[in-house]
Amino acid sequence: MKKIWIAIGIVFAVAVVVMVLAFVGLYMVVRHAAPVSDENEKMAELLTEPPPPSAPDAPSMERWSYSGVQDKATGKIGQVACLSSQDYVKLAPPYVGGSVGTLCLRKGVKPEAYFKVDNGVILCSRGCEIRLTAEGKTPLIVNGTEGKEGETTIVVFDSYSRIMSMARKAKQMKIEVPYDRMGVQALTFAPTDPLVAGW
């Protein structure tokens, strides 16, 4: 009889040990499963998130372009050299998008230097001051006037010879012009090649 009770005690003890081990194992599984689940959720969020915006392109180098333009008053064809800015101005509402600037030099009976934008409005209806700066040089300040027909995207400079001289020598120029809703903004001009001979 005594041996039976001993056997029952051993079986009970083994059962208790098994239950304890099973409980500990279950606890460890649950404990370690939660972080794994969290990591999986984080990974899923990363995979579903939109990719970050790409870095802006590096400023492009522009070339002088040459063309012939007919003078409306005389009917004569004049030669024009133009250079676009390598950067742009991001416009404020109500305007949309960006604005690239272009510096033009026109030869002819009445040589002319002017600046134009492809978007936005230049505030120069009553005249304005334009600052041009070549690398390491003292800024050149010239007066500007609105385009001949009230064009708000063009400003004509009053100093063709000085601007021409700067354009021939400078490897990089900055031109500051007053934009509507934006104030004075600077655009950079860095031609890959100098003006051709004869300009």
Write the layout of secondary structure elements.
Layout: H1 2-48, E1 65-70, E2 77-84, E3 89-90, E4 98-99, E5 101-106, E6 112-117, E7 128-134, E8 140-146, E9 154-157, H2 160-169, E10 173-179, E11 183-189
Antiparallel strand pairs: 1-2, 2-5, 3-4, 5-6, 6-9, 7-8, 7-10, 8-9, 10-11
Describe this structure in words.
By secondary structure, the chain is α+β, with helices and mostly antiparallel strands. The chain folds into two domains: 1-54; 65-189, Immunoglobulin-like. Helices cover 29% and strands 31% of the residues. The chain has helices at 2-48, 160-169; strands at residues 65-70, 77-84, 89-90, 98-99, 101-106, 112-117, 128-134, 140-146, 154-157, 173-179, 183-189. Strands 1-2-5-6-9-8-7-10-11 form a nine-stranded antiparallel beta sheet, with helices on one face. The longest helix is centred in the N-terminal third of the chain and has 47 residues, at 2-48.
